[in-house]
Structures are given as structure tokens and as C-alpha cells.
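[worker-b] picked up task from shared queue
[worker-b] task type: protein-ligand structure
[worker-b] ligand name resolved to zinc ion; SMILES cross-checked against name lookup, match
[worker-b] sequence length check passed
[worker-b] input payload:
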Amino acid sequence: MALDADQITVTFAARGLRLTRQRRAVLDAVAEASASVSPVQVFDAAREHCPELGLTTVYRTLELLSEIGALRRVHGPDHCEAFVPASAAHGHTVVCSRCGQVVEFTDCDMQAVVDAAVRQTGYRITEHFLQLSGECPACGERAGRPQRPAGDGA
Ligand SMILES: [Zn+2]
Ligand SMILES: [Zn+2]
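[worker-b] inference finished, payload out:
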């Protein structure tokens, strides 16, 4: 997962926005975290580099970065809203319920579920959100449950 500041600068510019020092501090705080981060965690981490940063700016920036697809919203361990970098336009997060580490999962085949929902409700389904949780390989190993290596190791 990578948050490309140059790409984000370009995307922001197309919307007439600038990647200011404050926004950059928010971006870096999310990029440097190994797990999902809540707005308050971002605020605490980013203020070390950018003491003038306000919590409102953190919220607005996280919102903005989600809008342009750079971040994905997840339910944090305490079911509060948290954020992770998003590398694909459509993807889902897999969260370790022990250590909180988050990886992205893009190979979702929801067609059967969507078809069943259409049959049952008659709705035209346009979007879905999915979050999976479990135990990451490292935590599994620590607990003495070696797991199959992940397919592409990304
Ligand atoms: Zn873990
Ligand atoms: Zn999906």
C-alpha cells in the first residue's frame, strides 16, 4: 500500500486544492501507520511534525483523501471510523483482530451475493462495502498456528 504524494498533488490540483503542509502531515501519518488509524490517532501523530494542525483539518483532509480514492474507510478495532491507504479503486480491507494490521484485498467476487440480494429485494445493486477480519500470519505464528503463505505476498 502506498500513498503517492505526487499523484495526490496532481489529483488535488485538478480540484483546485493544494497539498498543504497540514494536509501533507495527515497523509504522512496514515502512510506511516502499520494498522488502520482513527482521526484522533492521525491528529496525535501528525502534530509531531506539524504542531499547528487542528483536528478539524484532520477530519476534512481524511474526508478529502477518501473522496479521491487515496484512503479507504474501515471500522477500527473499537468500531470507530478509521482509515487505511487504498491502492486500488475497488478493494476491501482485511483486519487482524489481534494486532490491528490491515491489508487490502482486491480480488472480490461478490456476484453471487449481489444476485441473491437482487432476487430477494428487487433492488438494483450499485455498490458494496466489505470488511473481513481474522488473524494475520504473524499473529497466527506467535500463537502457534502456522498458516499457508499468502498467494502473492503483497
Ligand atoms: Zn496480527
Ligand atoms: Zn468488492
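[worker-b] attaching auto-annotations
[worker-b] The chain has one domain: 5-142.
[worker-b] releasing lock
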